[in-house]
Amino acid sequence: ADLGGVFWVKQLEHLLIALVIYAILMTGVLLQRSDSWWPGTIAAGALVYSIAAVNQFSGAYAWENIPYEDIMQDKGQHEYREEPGVYVQPEMQPGA
Length: 96
Fold this sequence. Notes:
Blueprint: H1 4-33, H2 38-60, H3 68-75
């Protein structure tokens, strides 16, 4: 089985979680070191956005299984050509 899709999605999830951790860290650093609270507030806005991105990514995509209705809708949109003849592997023919 090909696990490339699973690993790719997990990498993206981990990247988004790392982004949340980084935003938390930077918000704290900016709030601690700045004379004003504006830089920390702006960083907190990025934190809210990154948490929303994690939540959206977690539930927005049906990448593991495609709904049957989508497959049937897609089937009517494409033209399929008939292949003439039948392929039989030469080793499997009688008398080979």
